[in-house]
Amino acid sequence: MGFISCISFPTINSRILSTHHFSKHSTSASSSYSLKFALRRQEDKPKVSFFFPLTSSLMATPIQASSSSTIGETSDGLKVQSHVSIGANDLLIVGPGVLGRLVAEQWRQEHPESQIFGQTVTTNHHGELENLGIKPSLKGTEYGGKFSYVIFCAPPSQSADYAGEVRNAASNWNGEGSFLFTSSSAPYDCFDNGECNEDSPVVPLGKSPRTDVLLKAEKVVLECGGTVLRLAGLYTETRGAHTYWLSKETIDARPDHILNLIHYEDAASLAVAIMKKKAGARIFLGCDNHPLSRQEVMDLMAQSGKFDKKFKGFTSTSGPLGKKLNNSKTRAEIGWEPKYPSFAQFLGVST
Q: Which branch of life, at top level (predicted)?
């Protein structure tokens, strides 16, 4: 998803309700409502968009949990053990932010009786997680057992040793089901708007500190038999690069730079599908196969009529270009198709 950006993206309010819908939890209608409310609350605040899951996603430093429900590491650094009975289809989500919560919802649809645990850095949003049926715990928790399914959705900005964080997450996996790491498409070594797929070369280690962080984390995953999912630019109607650009009116960047997108819901459904496949030490790619230039993205927003603000334009004629991602190989192997085939169709714009 482009690269990891630590820019605070303000919310752009639409004149109509978002066109995307979240499916109901199998547990109760109130849980489904809670997810929508929680996501809406997050989208009503300035936020950081990681072109990642990463991206992409956001590490939920998810309101306040009761002392009985919060497990993990105490303020003085002492480890807390949680003696829970872990079932064959139980899932541990490290970094249950926007993407992780959607993964939880879709996992519950597939496995209604499963327990879902969400591991965070702080207890700030543990109440929200509990309302969504996710059992909150703190980083460093020792569960007294291992999980068959673990997904790592936390962004690199949360840690000085990202590969180490991934390694710690992998230590909670028993090696049987799937350990999935949501990475970024940024490491692909293509900056001329050329074609790019799952097997394209990546930026050599040592060339870019930013891609090094991701590639070293991916190496940890693959060496332990886990699976990597490189995601394109994650978005919703009010979250993503397009909202940042719209808020600024003009951007010092070239308009012909190609970027790639995938809706948060589609990224979650692909992640769940890959975990169910138990694909092993493989690298997959998540995108909608409809790459767009920056200018095309903003033109589509204007055509949709859903946004009050008007974008004035990109002002640069220099700088690196992007890449045109294609994940046909991933789709064929996993048996997956996106709910939103393109950004234009998500916005309801005919092209």
A: Eukaryota
Whether 191 has a pLDDT exceeding 50, the answer reads yes
What single DSSP character describes residue 22? P
> Cβ neighbours of residue 133 under 8 Å, at least 6 residues apart?
25, 27, 31, 104, 108, 116
| Interatomic CA distance for residues 1 and 164, integer angstroms | 23
The Cα–Cα gap between 311 and 246 comes to 5
Q: How confident is the model at residue 351 (pLDDT cuts 50, 70, 90)?
A: low
pTM value surpassing 0.85: no
Distance CA 190, CA 192 (A): 6
Contacts by residues 218-222 (CB-CB < 8 Å, ≥ 24 positions apart): 218/181, 218/183, 218/187, 218/283, 219/163, 220/163, 220/166, 220/167, 220/170, 221/152, 221/166, 221/170, 221/179, 221/181, 221/281, 222/281, 222/283
